[in-house]
């Protein structure tokens, strides 16, 4: 596709190449070239913190492939918002045709989104939301995180009322963590579940394990319910619980969100008690939005992808055909 701001892009690309802004995905970073027929898309991913994130990255890489008419410039920001914003600025300077962002945090996006808009490059958000005005991006596709938290909380109230709860929160300031916490609290209103503690494990297994070790040292066997904002933190917590001589699923009921393969295996094995799905397969929807926006077609500002929930029996049934 014809590049807007080609000369500005060239200067910017050279400057960024000199500062060593990282890209991968086999496309290099050079000016978003790749044949007039390909649509160049810069994708600013959060990082690689979880199994969900790997499945999401894979889904976007597949959908935004050359075979499908795209040239992808991929960047994973290691969960650091400054790095993610720098990647978006690099895409703007390279003069890509469109930018896709999975925003790490809700706040802090106004300036760079305005820069993309001023450069005439449409932005599609996927996965998490931002607090910036929706005039600054073309569309968002993702999940209803508040509903996910609420469904998890409803299960807890119905199956573990009166428990002593600890919570492993996702990345601080992310819409996934904020909205899941809101939904969970809403569901727990009027229940007798007592929250002993709540801390971030940053959506990682290591984080979940370390924070759970701290909870166990402090509260010991008083804990009998864990809500982890994602499977990976729940899986990390399993190690800590077993190392403390407790039996996950029996001494401590564990409710998580995502339903990635390892989480579903833990649920089928009786170690987790309930999972609310968070569907990471957003690639095709993103690719479709990019094409429509660039063609000047009108698109919905928000698209919510439906999630389901899994009990232990449902996990056993679903596991053999689960795609991620
Ligand atoms: O934003 C979605 C969340 O991010 C997933 O639930 C979690 O696993 C990931 O890191």
What count of domains describes the coordinates? Answer: 2
> Based on DSSP secondary structure assignment, what is the total number of beta strands?
12
Average pLDDT confidence is 91
**Biggest sheet architecture:** 6 strands, parallel
CATH 2nd-level architecture of the largest domain: 3-Layer(aba) Sandwich
- Spatial separation of the terminal alpha carbons: 33 Å
Q: How much β-strand is present in the residues?
A: 15-25%
Uncertain stretches of 5 or more adjacent residues: 2-35
What small molecules does the structure contain?
Answer: alpha-L-arabinofuranose
Question: What do you see in this structure?
Answer:
- Helices cover 42% and strands 19% of the residues.
- It is an alpha/beta fold and 324 residues long.
- The protein folds into 2 domains: 25-143 and 280-306, Response regulator (Rossmann fold); 145-278, Response regulator (Rossmann fold, 3-Layer(aba) Sandwich), CATH 3.40.50.
- The chain has a 6-stranded parallel sheet with strand order 2-1-3-4-5-11, sandwiched between helices.
- Strand 1 (39-45), helix 2 and strand 2 form a beta-alpha-beta unit.
- The longest helix is centred in the middle third of the chain and has 16 residues, at 145-160.
- It is elongated and about 60 Å long.
- Residues 2-35 have low confidence and may be disordered.
- Residues 49-50, 52-53, 127-128, 176, 203, 230, 232, 257-258, 278 line the site of alpha-L-arabinofuranose.
